[in-house]
Design brief:
This is NAD-dependent epimerase/dehydratase family protein. This protein is of the alpha/beta class and about 325 residues long. It has two domains: about 10-170 and about 205-230 and about 295-305, Rossmann fold (3-Layer(aba) Sandwich), CATH 3.40.50.720; about 180-200 and about 230-295 and about 310-325, no CATH class. The protein has eleven helices and twelve strands. The strands form two sheets. Strands 3-2-1-4-5-7-10 form a seven-stranded parallel sheet, sandwiched between helices. Helix 2 packs across helix 3. The chain is globular and about 55 Å long. Mean pLDDT is about 85; it is low at about 250-275. The structure holds NADP nicotinamide-adenine-dinucleotide phosphate. The site of NADP nicotinamide-adenine-dinucleotide phosphate has 25 residues, from helix 1 and strand 8.
């Protein structure tokens, strides 16, 4: 591609998802032309202004016109073990990425920004934090499929085109009926357990969107960037949510979406909480008791990436949470 089009064009896979819909809104607000991939069954919500391409991430015929002529291809379509079996997970995450890259190779495309997961990295030995270099042996089909997809993206960046990979940690924000709804319910419900083992990096969805745009603007081709947030023990995260929403355990029902989307997670905590709490599948359950903390230093230094504290993201998420259960 010779240079950016005016207005710039973005192609977004996973445009109807939690992160993708937020990214589309931001791109539209910033004046981009936005093409979104959606399936016939996808809920497009209130996303107005997106040029929809209906199909599947495994369908090359749909992908070609989606990406051809795009300055940026944000590849976010993905699926976890909480909503599909291992074969489908591999198909969508690994093969889907392969199809997207094929379409990009065939077309005239600027930069591909691939959204993987921090789960392909883990703190090594006694280290407190993981960074991009801490490549971990994948646990389960989700991590394995993302790791394989990362290799495909690296190879594409080496030989065919321009691509960068971002690794968000656990994303918190409105519209996420899984992790966010669970964490909020723990902060406001009297019935939730007071003490949980382990910890994680929690990043606001708006910060991840900033990171995606920064990776497009300033990332180096072939590089990987962790997009993390605050590293918190579960206890600390839950108590800070409780403090932010007024400190009194609200009498709020858990939304059906939270229960529906919870998916298989750390069983020991599930048993205590009588609810699924961790953003892990069954195979990854042992990780739930660890502190999975991440450093976003590279993204900060090279992309100018910044994240805000959990409190900054709670009000918007809480507003959504309360509306969801009415
Ligand atoms: N949420 C997190 O904490 C987190 C953390 C790290 C990385 N990530 C990664 O970030 C990306 C977005 O996550 P998210 O939380 O926004 O997930 P999400 O809400 O489940 O959205 C997934 C998106 O992928 C689409 N999709 C799934 N299978 C598809 C297929 N076969 N063809 C076309 N589209 C398909 C979905 O379409 P439908 O609307 O039709 O279902 C949806 O738009 C994923 O790649 C995920 O692995 C997420």
């Amino acid at each position: 591609m010779t240079g950016p089009t005016d207005p710039p064009i973005a192609a977004v896979t996973g445009a109807t998802g939690f992160l993708g819909s937020r990214l589309c809104r931001r791109l539209l607000a910033d004046g981009w032309t936005v093409r979104g991939l959606c399936r016939p069954t996808s809920d497009r919500g209130d996303l107005e202004g997106v040029e929809w391409h209906v199909g599947d991430v495994l369908d090359t015929e749909t992908l070609r016109p989606l990406v051809d002529g795009a300055d940026a291809v944000f590849h976010l379509a993905g699926i976890g073990l909480w909503s599909a079996g291992p074969e489908t997970v591999r198909e969508v995450n690994r093969d889907g990425t392969e199809r997207v890259l094929e379409a990009c190779r065939d077309g005239d495309v600027g930069r591909v920004v691939f959204t993987s997961t921090s789960g392909t990295r883990r703190p090594q030995g006694d280290a407190d934090f993981a960074d991009e270099t801490d490549v971990a042996e994948p646990i389960g089909a989700y991590q394995a499929s993302k790791a394989e997809a990362e290799d495909l993206v690296d190879r594409y960046a080496d030989t065919d085109g321009d691509a960068v990979t971002v690794h968000p940690t656990s994303i918190f924000g409105p519209g996420d009926g899984a992790f966010t709804a669970q964490l909020l319910s723990m902060g406001v419900e009297r019935t939730m357990p007071a003490h949980l083992p382990g910890g994680l990096s929690i990043v606001g969805v708006s910060d991840v969107v900033d990171g995606l745009l920064a990776a497009y603007d300033r990332g180096t081709a072939g590089e990987h960037y962790i997009l993390g947030g605050e590293n918190l023990t579960y206890d600390r995260a839950v108590s800070r949510i409780a403090e932010t929403v007024g400190g009194s355990p609200a009498r709020i029902r858990v939304p059906a979406t939270a229960i529906h989307a919870a998916g298989p997670v750390a069983e020991v905590v599930d048993a205590v909480a009588d609810r699924r709490v961790f953003p892990f599948d069954r195979e990854m359950a042992t990780l739930a008791t660890r502190r999975l903390f991440y450093s976003s230093r590279k993204a900060s230094e090279e992309l100018g990436y910044e994240y805000r504290p959990l409190e900054a993201h709670v009000p918007e998420a809480m507003e959504w949470y309360q509306a969801e259960i009415r």
